[in-house]
Design a protein that fits this description.
By secondary structure, this protein is α+β, with helices and mostly antiparallel strands. The protein is 24% helix and 37% strand. It starts with 9 loop residues before the first helix and ends with a helix.
Length: 351
Amino acid sequence: MSSTASTPLPGRNSGAATRRTFAIARHADIVNVPKWKQKEIAALRNGVRATVYMTNGDRYIGEWQAGMKDGNGTYHYAATGAVYQGEWRQDMRSGYGTYSIPIESAPTTSDSDKSHGPLLPSLPALKKAAGSTTITSASPTTATPTKSTAATSAIKIRAAQDAAPLRKVYAGEWAGDLRHGRGTCFYDDGSMYDGMWEGDVREGWGRLHFAADKSVYEGEWHDGLRHGQGVLLLANGDRYEGTYLNDLKEGPGRFIYRLKRQCYEGEWALDMPKCGTLRDLPPLAGHEGTGPKARKWWPIPQLTLLDPNDVLAMEREAIRQERLRRVVEDNAQDFSDESGDDEEDQEGSPE
């Protein structure tokens, strides 16, 4: 008796494959998330949370998004006692916020200015590690503290830090964890800057009140220095109106002597007047005549040049050529320094 193997019908197999294809297409939007992934998503902080303690002692209270500081919140820096209160975006200070430090602390910074003292202290980098609920004492001890004593000690330390008076250092806009936009900076010597920032330095238009000599500068800034058009008003009423280059008076400018009632107008180089004209100004109201408030005269010598305009034009051209030479040399030096740094980086990088 011969046996024959049964073979499935081709139509039946093709129909099953077609049904499976339709089922996959119909449920393509359904994704089976692994359990470990579900737990990880559930562990991410979202919305407003209570105080979260970092492993380095810092603490944050505010809004979260996908496990990152995002929204409004307050961050306390344990190492310095500084406090940032304001807006956050993806774990970085972005938006409007204020940065304050304890009054008794002396800010140390690498960003300094010879004209008005140290700037904003270096802001510590924010840690993206998850916060820890374990609280330990800030000062080491020889004895092994119990859980209750360690928590009590940490609470006392935090209470003392919260009670310490703070001094506002910066209030304004931030971007990418740096001062960026319109903001006001208060320096430790009493000076104050109100204006534009870019990349954590003064950039654009702004006004700086110098506490040392009570003078005020309002004008353009570049890379943290006075650069461009500006006006400097001194405490005695004298004023300078003109251009700056790398924090020094450079180019055409006008200096008005309020009490002498004289005005110098001409070229400046390296913060010094080089070539220009000095003329008398009309007396101030109430200072005419010969009374006690009468103007005190500082007579200007009579000019005896045959062609003063030609002499001034020649001197101005010489000053401009010298200025152009200095600017070209400075740019060439900066370019060579950057090229040397790039070569060192390439030599030190592994192949």
